[in-house]
Amino acid sequence: MAVQKLLTEWIGDQCEEGGQNLPKSYEVHQVIAAAKENQPAYTSLLKQILHEPNLYEAWKQVRKNHGAPGIDNITIGEFAKDLQKHIDFIIVSVENGTYDPSPVRRKDIKKPNGGYRTLGIPTIRDRLLAQAIQQVLTPVFDPTFSASNFGFRPGRSAQDAVEHAKATISEGHTWVVDIDISKFFDRVNHDILMYLLSRRIVDKMLLKLIRKFLNAGIMGNGVASRQTEGVPQGSPLSPLLANILLDVLDKELEQRGHKFSRYADDCNIYVKSERAAKRVMNSIQKFIEVKLRLKLNADKSAVDRPWKRKFLGFSFIGGLKTIPRIRIAKKSIKSFKEKIRQITKRNRGISLEQMVNELNLYLRGWLGYFRLMETPSILMELDGWIRRKLRCYLFKQWKTSKKRLKELRKLGAKEPWSVAYSSKGFWRLSITKQVSTALDCTYFDELGLLSLYQQWCGYVKFS
């Protein structure tokens, strides 16, 4: 049936072109042979998914990711107490076709640039089964994905996508078609996605189970609503399903000979001229809207130079006559500073040591992501800015002029009274010679505050 379906679709495509390319009888046999060769019969996938070692491996990943409870309010710890019982239930109910995923719990996350992103938090049991499905389906689908797809794939990362973009720009593709799909995860068409899955998966029970996950719905304010489109952000299965759908776009771009770099729904297509870029934008927009039933975000999609756009938090410098360098995008710097301002609020009333520990936790993770950048001067600027924020915090803690005079003297400041009794604001006083000398880099180094620049130098040294 699957082979016949492929043949019917192939002939149907030729008919759309006026019937001039319909195959002769011997060509039909070639099409059938090719279809059989390229149509693997994954009839045992459900057995692999329900294999206990696979389910236990899935549990390890779910437990490692932690995560909040779903609508049943069962936590990871509570689930672990009856783990075997839950696994037995999954195996039996999936095998007899009675397993019904619960609606996901709605959680709205505020975006840095305004608006909200809706996350769907599945129950632990649904998360476990979805992870088990993902583990089995990934080896089936991932090898066929495009080499320019870097999102949610084993051994690939956002940094790889940015480096691939840099290499493409270096080859002279200095115009970018920056594509942003509007509310992608909320608008994935279920019928198109299920069709794409059915082309590779013969097991109808597995297809029915995946459809149940898609239709499980979302619960907010105690009311459950059935989902007719979209995949919940929060399910271990959603990233793979998103890649399966967007692989259609990747294959179209490859067929047209375009250079691109994609991570999830962030896709940058690189061409050599503005005219070509505008032409590609128009044609790809039509393809996405007609073939995938999705829409581009007009405000975020654009044709421009790569160094004027943001890609996964990064941007570039140069590229016309020099080799481009990777930099941190301005919006990412702005978000970074906003987070630091929250940590170093002057009215928090915590010790400086505790604040430094919180800063270090954030700085390590932030630089771990942006370690790819090649403009270290911004890191030195940020190091100085952070230390200045901490000086302001200390001055606020030294509530009286007498206390400030005493502390500055203790730290060896010269003529500390001119600062201690000053009526100027904390931010202005924080860069005076007296304060910057007393509370210098050594002072903060001894507190254990990380230096972004020094950490980055370590990454470069061992990369």
Give structural notes.
The protein is of the alpha+beta class and 463 residues long. The chain is 55% helix and 10% strand. It is built from 22 helices and ten strands. Strands 2-1-4-5 form a four-stranded mixed sheet, with no helix packed on it. A hairpin with a 7-residue loop joins strand 9 and strand 10. Helix 1 crosses helix 2, helix 4 crosses helix 7 and helix 10 packs antiparallel against helix 11. The chain is globular. The chain starts with a helix and ends with a helix.
In DSSP terms, counting alpha (H) and pi (I) runs of 4 or more, how many helices?
A: 22
Strand-residue proportion: 5-15%
What's the total number of strands?
10
Query: Helical proportion?
Result: 40-55%
Q: Termini, distance in Å?
A: 51 Å
Secondary structure layout:
Elements: H1 2-16, H2 25-37, H3 45-50, H4 52-65, H5 76-81, H6 83-95, E1 104-110, E2 116-121, H7 124-141, H8 158-170, E3 175-180, H9 184-187, H10 190-198, H11 204-215, E4 218-220, E5 223-225, H12 238-255, E6 259-263, E7 266-271, H13 274-291, E8 302-304, E9 314-317, E10 325-328, H14 330-343, H15 352-370, H16 377-397, H17 401-410, H18 417-420, H19 426-429, H20 433-438, H21 441-446, H22 452-462
Parallel strand pairs: 1-4
Antiparallel strand pairs: 1-2, 3-7, 3-8, 4-5, 6-7, 9-10
Helix pairs in contact: 1-2, 4-7, 10-11
What key attributes describe this structure?
globular, disordered N terminus, 22 helices, alpha+beta, 10% strand, four-stranded antiparallel beta sheet
